[in-house]
Amino acid sequence: MEAKKHIRRFMIASPCSGSGKTLFSCALMNLLKRKFELSAFKCGPDFIDPLFHKKVLDLPSVNLDGYFDVGKDLLQLFVEESSENRISIVEGAMGFFDGVGGTSLQASCYDVAVTTKTPVILVVDARGASRSLCATIKGFVKYAKKNIVKGIFLNKVSKSFYPLLKNMIEKECKVKVLGFLPFDDRLSWNSRHLGLVLPNEIQDFKNQIDLASALLEESLDQTALLNIAADVSGLKVVMNNSFEKFIKEKKYNGLKIGIAYDDAFCFYYKKNIRMIEEAGASVEYFSPLNDSKVPDVDGIIIGGGYPELYADKLEENYSMKNSICALVKDNIPVLADCGGFMYLQKELACQDGIKHKMCGAIEGESFYTGKLVRFGYAQYTSKDLCFKIRGHEFHYFESSNNGDEFISEKPSGRKVSPCIVKQKNVLAGFPHLYYNSCPEFLASFLDKAVAYKASKGVSDER
Q: How much is the pTM?
């Protein structure tokens, strides 16, 4: 079925990481949500910035990734998650032209903006610069083959200097300057090796966002910004469900999939969860930190996060660990990514060297290495060649048992080491897997959940 939507939209991008995209995005969302309904998006595979969007908007944020979803699939996802009644705000990642492998435009913010026909507002860190800003801005505007840079935000600019910079840039670069944020010590967000710390770790987070919004409101040319968002073409796509062929018989109706979700495990792609629900299964969230046991479910997914920050509490929740181990022994199907993989193993050695007992549901111990172990996109092919699924890795931890059920391959074609443990009905490893890149993979997991549910019924009858 064909659909065409006129979606007001813009992307906030920057020349490089650390320019202030997330602060600008959150401040702007916080400001605009007072008058408009919004949809939030994040370029790339990042999990943390969407948590910031959710904290500000009280809405899930959706990843737009040109490696996971290519071309029409990416456009379809954007249209599905947008609405004509809302303004869609896309936060970029890294530098505007930085894509797969560091040399390709694929999966870059530019790639996503061109695919979704989204105008771009460039956030430029202006601290310690003046006329040189024109060279930077002109370079980005001219390097883009498509004329999609429609506005500029300036970061870390004094209130007195801003009018001079604004006039100079608009005259020299022929692009509208829409506002600025001054340098302010009160707006200070720390980073961890995965990027920013989580929003609930920032003291007075809401007050900081309110402050940033108030500062931005003083200079924001809201009329010009809304005109940019509205002056876009309609998006025409063929709406189809990539998972449809697996769910025509509705055999997954009535399934219950338990998903671990709390401060320790909060890294999930919304599309992954949505596919489970579209299949007819229901999702039941539980907390390995706070709950005593896994709810009555037919399958379990434990995503990534920061279990190392909560290792004491995870270790002490014996009833939850025992519940998971009993279900694994009973052959419940389990998928676990990165932090979830670490939690399922026997032991976790944290940055301080202290070792903590984890579930012990699968073999292996994980430990902090002090350096980035594996990073970036890859395609993961199962040993039996049944599945080729895409994903992403970014971790400073290593395991004594990485598994060998899949082989990873970089977009460059370079093979990497074997990965992903298969033990009983468990598949667990460091890669964050994106189900829509291989619907057969999710169907296989749900098929196992159907079989497990049926076995529970037989056991109950006995």
A: 0.90
